[in-house]
Amino acid sequence: MAKWVYDFGDGKADGRAEMKNLLGGKGANLAEMASIGLPVPPGFTLTTEVCTHFYQNDCQYPKELEQQVEKALNLVETRTGRKFGDSINPLLVSVRSGARASMPGMMDTVLNLGLNDITVEALAKKSGDRRFAFDSYRRFVQMYSDVVLGIEINHFEKHLERAKEKRGVKQDCELLPEDLEKLVKSYKAVVQLELGEEFPEDPKAQLWGAVGAVFNSWMNQRAKTYRALHDIPEWWGTAVNVQAMVFGNMGNDCATGVAFTRDPSTGKNEFYGEFLVNAQGEDVVAGIRTPQELTIRARQSHGSDLPSLEEVMPNIFRELLSVRSQLETHYKDMQDIEFTIQQGKLYMLQTRNGKRTAPAALQIAVDMAKEGLITKSQALLSLKPDLIDQLLHPTLDPKAKKEIIAKGLPASPGAAGGKVVFSADEAVRRCKDGEKVILVRIETSPDDIHGLHAAEGVLTTRGGMTSHAAVVARGMGRPCVAGAGSITVDYAAAKLSVGSVTVTEGQILTIDGSTGEVMVGEVPTVPPQLSGSFGTIMQWADEVRDMKVRANAETPADARQAKEFGAEGIGLVRTEHMFFEGQRIVAMRQMILATDEADRRQALDKLLVMQREDITELFRIMDGNPVTVRLLDPPLHEFIPHTEAEMALVAKAAGVPLDRVRRRAAELQEANPMLAEVGRSSKKLPVAEVMVPLVATVEELKLLKGVIEKTADAVKKEQGITFTYKIGTMIELPRAALQAGRLAEMAEPEMKMGICGEHGGDPASIEVRARRGAELKVLSAVETKVPGYFEKIRHEVVDRDKGKGEDGTWGTDTMTFQDDELSYALGKQGGTRKKLERASGAVVQYVGQNALFSGEKSLRRKAKEYMKWLFNQLEGPVYVDGWEDRDDCTVVDVPSECIGYVTGARRAALGNMEEEWGTLMFFMNKEAMNGGGKGRDRSDRSRGGSEQLAIFGDRRARRGAELKIMSAVETKSPGVFTRGVREKFSSEKGFATDRFVLKDDELSYALGKEGATRKKLELASGAILQYVGHVAFVAGDLKERKRCKQFIDWLLSQRRGSVTVSDIQDRDDCTEMMIPENCKGWVTGNRGSELRRVEQERLLIFSNNPGSKTGDGGRAHAERMVNEMVQDRRRSRNSVVIPVAAGAVTPAPAPGVETQGGGFGWSIAADPPPGGDDRRRGAATRDPELEHLELMDKVSGRDLAQRHALRAAAATAADANVAKGAGPRNPQATGCRGTKAYWNSLKLFLQWELFHRVQYFRTEPVRAFPWCKWPQQHVTHRSQEGEYMKGGPEGYKNLFMDKHGMHEEERLVGF
């Protein structure tokens, strides 16, 4: 029976720290702390596999789970001596989330679970403290109602505030027992009012409700956002931890707190944390009360009058210090811990690796290595490369004038300034518009995660150093000032006040997270100063690294900074970047716009003086380190003058008429790069490397190489010196990439290779495997040009990465070929080498007569085996003994009469399948091999029987190839694989295969012309889809399989009419676009050809691949392409395009054109209009205005006030625009509300509004408006730009603020 529940407590545990993938970080660490003897309240963990099962099975639990939970709960009762739901001695529990990666505050927690009207009385009696019992009860009712029942917390907060106001107190802890009893009744009344049912009293029902809520919180929006920001996969899931409650709110000998074993802001080896007396854990994190410091030193440094834990409970403090030391020694990292003190006894509730700032991460790594806790290598590996980026941000200039208005706690270091915003949504909106913002909140909650990410910094008036805002800001590298209690925030008025100073939304505020200072206005910054632990880490990294790092730099300032950061030269000087400023850009434009050689030389002479000075200074700064200078590669869109003033400056500088400059700028096209000369260093001879950009052919490089050599000789003669230099090129064009081998022949024999730009600094681009593959590719090219070169450096190459990799088994093996073997091992156009590489997972490259296999040990072993089998086939049939036990092999029995059909002429069909799936495939015949023959001949095959086709590769690739083989066999011999087959749908969470039967007419439709529909279904869903006879086989993980089946169902449903996708907004594989009615045909094309062209180029709108707008695939790129098509349509018409009525679903064109990229599409409404598809059924009974507004309501979430404003504006328009005799307008009369005049007036009103938006926001030229002649007062209103931009009349304002949904539209959804 599967084990779904793991228990811990009393010094024992089922789990351990290494099991965090199964138990989650919290569960694994609770088990570990219990095992090493720390005081951990007993409990149990529901594994992450339960979460996976929960989501894969329509939110249903495994059948064994309830029994295992009951058993574990009984064990907790035994260990605590209390009983769950007991009326005398009740056990209360907490229910908390716990993913394998820390996600602070992103998921839900329920405390004090098990309380009801009976157990609360027992708790009061047992504890002797009625106030404590009912304080716990009211907290539980509020938390459970929020987390499990989904009732907004503000419904309860107002009752709490009212109770404190009535009692005349400010703190929750000052309420009396009778106040709390009344609060519980009020809270329960809220539940009854909101849900129409009573608050659950059964503890078991409470428990399962809380467990379900925690699992559901894995998919809440804030958790999704956090996962996206921190690259946490959705399929990881979360565990749920159920633990016996211990109470920090039973009196003044009780407390709760959060601590870090070292300072997470600075990294200093100081105990750091906060606590609250007579409180529960959420009070500290939520920032509801200002907490107290742990140590006397921290209290004094923060100027707090509240006593520290060291003073209040000195014995507990000493015990906590011991725990701190024990945890750091055990985990060998800084720990973030949660603790509770109940009646003088310490309990540990959690430990995890603490989040820290970048400076702190460096300091902690260096200190722990020096203390002997970890090695230097472990210190380096503990640091993520992106942390370094956080160190390179500026800090406030200490000499700058600052108007400090308040001071809070320095919760996360760094300085930031921006416009004040008071909501997370507003922060995101302004950030998208390119504005820098400071998010100001009384206190943050997990729901603010998107705003925290968008903001430059965070300011809160409540909370401490371990509040939600502080912890999340530190993890994100954002400055944060917390607990600035002198500031008053007014959300309704969108302003903050402190003393006589008021700051409204949109004004500039600066915060310093290192000092806690809050300043009005923008304060200048200074560049970061890197020293101390940063220098130590860089020194340690230098001791073990095997790569050199150069800088991209064009200016002396950039070069100096790069040298200070440790750059060993300049990898790229983009010479054109030297000419963006002042008179330099004028001279550059003069050179670009020159119409003859004389004019160009005149301009180049000016540029030469400037460039020589700059490059000489670069050589001087680098002082002997190499400098790679790229020849001029001016991006014309940046240099060509666009305005009259710019053109006039160029004309004046060149001494030519302005008309000539205008004409030349208009006709100029991209030109070849131009050569510039370089200077010499004053100290050491320059180490110059000349890079030729944008080379496409060998002839180009050869020509320019000659020019460079000629220029170099001239410089040597002119300067009377001798120097060395190198010539190379940048591979940046597709043609150059294809001819890299030939281009390499023109470069230097001692070739080096580098990656520049953002890719060069991306940690993913310098992974061991990527570097190794590129290195071996270059070595192969060099060996072709310089035979024997590899033998000189064989030892260095083979041993370089030895022992690296996750399991320490990375290495490189070699195999030497004979002359006749190399071509066979290489294959046509390198095909055999490629399939060996893809099938094995190792890096496979041939350098001269040597085969090099790089990768983990297991991958190298596979690659060498595959190579051996390839050569053995030359001698006869090959049989792999023990293939049944291998994890890289699948065998298909192919009927003898189908072998030729599957293999194809000269093995072409089988070879194509190998290339498509990255597999190695060959037929095995054990009998023929044992007999020493060459296998069966064609006459043997005709007599029946079968042969085994072995497929080698990873699991997914093997399954794809296997299904392809099965499909081919089934075409030749129907029934071989499908006779008697039944439908099967697996609930397995991992990789599996489903199958279902299609009817004749369904199969042809789902296949499409030349298999086009099958291909796009496969690519859009991410699953493997293959039709074997009439059976559809779908392979992949559960999500991919479900998605593919859904897509097929939608596709087949199209034939019968409209298709509704009701969960568009909740899907993570869908991008939705608004397409104007008169652009729909333009986008769709003739019989859908344009839409399928988008699909064919793999520009998907509905796909498992989200893509990016700068990439060349996925939904985002498809959206951009469609937008461009719409804009082309708009530009092609002499009018503003206004979307008009669409409403119901338009069926997709019949499939027919083969699509290479996958995906399919049709126009679709968000939901079908009530009454069905009127356009199809010919119905005309619905109220057109009502139908329109209902659709707008669903699409854009319009509220009642906006709807009334629209109605009023349309009514005014109707009065002014309806022709005389068209009939009365009476919106209250059902018969008149839908009149043609009223409907047309509404439509025209919307058209006019959209027309204004196009003009003002897209700054396009004013065009004719052919739809109507609008009343004069509306036309003149348009000319009053200032009034219009301010909003105008209320009706206009409401409409103007509504960005979308004010016109009828269709939604294009591509699959």
From TrEMBL:
Cofactor names from the entry are: Mg(2+)
Q: Which InterPro entries match?
A: ATP_grasp_subdomain_1, KH_dom, KH_dom_type_1_sf, PEP-util_enz_mobile_dom, PEP_util_AS, PEP_util_C, Phosphohistidine_dom_sf, PPDK_AMP/ATP-bd
Q: Which UniProt keywords apply?
A: ATP-binding, Kinase, Magnesium, Metal-binding, Nucleotide-binding, Pyruvate, Transferase
Q: What are this entry's molecular-function GO terms? A: ATP binding; kinase activity; metal ion binding; pyruvate, phosphate dikinase activity; RNA binding
What range(s) does the K Homology domain occupy?
A: 809-872, 886-970, 990-1053
Enzyme Commission code: 2.7.9.1
Q: Which NCBIfam families match?
A: PRK05878.1, pyru_phos_dikin
**Similarity comment text for this entry:** Belongs to the PEP-utilizing enzyme family.
* PANTHER family per record: PHOSPHOENOLPYRUVATE DIKINASE-RELATED, PYRUVATE, PHOSPHATE DIKINASE 1, CHLOROPLASTIC
Q: What is this protein called?
A: pyruvate, phosphate dikinase
